[in-house]
Amino acid sequence: MAKQKLKIILPVLILFVAIALMLGLMKGRQPAEQREDLPVGVLVDTITAQPETLIYRIGSQGTVRPKLMTSLVSEVNGRIIEVSPNFVEGGFFAAGEVLVTVEQDDYLTAVKAAEANLARATAALQEELARVRVAEEEWASFTEGDAPELGLRRPQLARELANVRSAEADLERAARDLSRTEIRAPYAGLLQSRAVNLGQFISRGTVLGSIFGTDLAEVRLPLSDNDLAFMHLPSGEQPQFPAVELSALVAGQQQQWQGKLVRTEGVLDERSRVIYAVVQVDDPYRLQTDGQQPLRFGRFVHASIDGISSEQVIPVPRNLLRPGNQILLVNSDKQLEFRTVQVQRTDERYAYVVAGLDAGDHLAVSALPNPLAGMQVRLGRVNGEWLDSPAAAGSDMAGD
């Protein structure tokens, strides 16, 4: 009987003890600390706006061409008996150098014949002069008054004088033809192509080859109306010649050459609506300068032309310029702000802002998917440097 009562009382007792313990624990529990949730700002990298005084650089491109290009043409007939070692494609030669020599025998004979004709005509003139003196003396001794022209042999004298002049002209022509048997370079240059060779018979008008002058090279650069607004073009009695830097990749290395803009062609291209400016480069093959890379004809080059100068201009990376000439900033309250600016010029790298930005403004350079005006942000790197340190920025992010 006692065991049965114990079995009934023990579970009840355990239940009351458990309830008492639970109530005690509930009374001793501290309330959870209430913490206000703060908004987390996006980490944004920025650059600082810095006004500058700069000279605009106008970009263009073109192909290097020689200023002087000449086709060598024979002015005599004959067989080629000698060719200069420099009369090969790409060969360099000096001004006045003999490139091709034509057989001279017939022309030497012509010179001798012309000399003989001149001597004969000169002798005849001297003889006629003697006859004129005799006629004048006879007329003066037998007759008074003015003698007729025929009586004094004036027509005969004029004829002999004309014969002498004709013989002199023939001699000059023969000597000139003889000199033309030596085809000389009209200026220092290189041979672009040749069409004849040793032993070949050529006639008057035969093209011997094509030569380029190496003293000056030219590059035609297309310029738009917008480009012209930022340049000083050569004009007037004291023209300015803007400096031009030409560049190209040669044998895997970037090379530069200096030139100057000397003129414009003065007519807009009807199809492209651009005007062509001509840049001149002295001694492109560096024949007078050792150790420099030559600027070869036919090379395609990029050009950077010195333009006008402008003050208080802020260069902004072009990718930061948004539609409507807006730029995303981080203001003093560390909030995003859209600012409309005035752009004077743009190129492939920068937009040049002349109004709408102040010195020290922070321009957001981080890629933000959906930026909104007034969005709270945190500054990360400014001009490529962390405000404190990358670790500090990371701990800041972890704390937020």
TrEMBL record:
<dbReference type="GO" id="GO:0015562">
    <property type="term" value="F:efflux transmembrane transporter activity"/>
</dbReference>
<dbReference type="GO" id="GO:1990281">
    <property type="term" value="C:efflux pump complex"/>
</dbReference>
<protein>
    <submittedName>
        <fullName>RND family efflux transporter, MFP subunit</fullName>
    </submittedName>
</protein>
<keyword id="KW-0175">Coiled coil</keyword>
<keyword id="KW-0472">Membrane</keyword>
<feature type="transmembrane region" description="Helical">
    <location>
        <begin position="6"/>
        <end position="25"/>
    </location>
</feature>
<feature type="coiled-coil region">
    <location>
        <begin position="111"/>
        <end position="184"/>
    </location>
</feature>
<keyword id="KW-1133">Transmembrane helix</keyword>
<comment type="similarity">
    <text>Belongs to the membrane fusion protein (MFP) (TC 8.A.1) family.</text>
</comment>
<keyword id="KW-0812">Transmembrane</keyword>
<dbReference type="InterPro" id="IPR006143">
    <property type="entry name" value="RND_pump_MFP"/>
</dbReference>
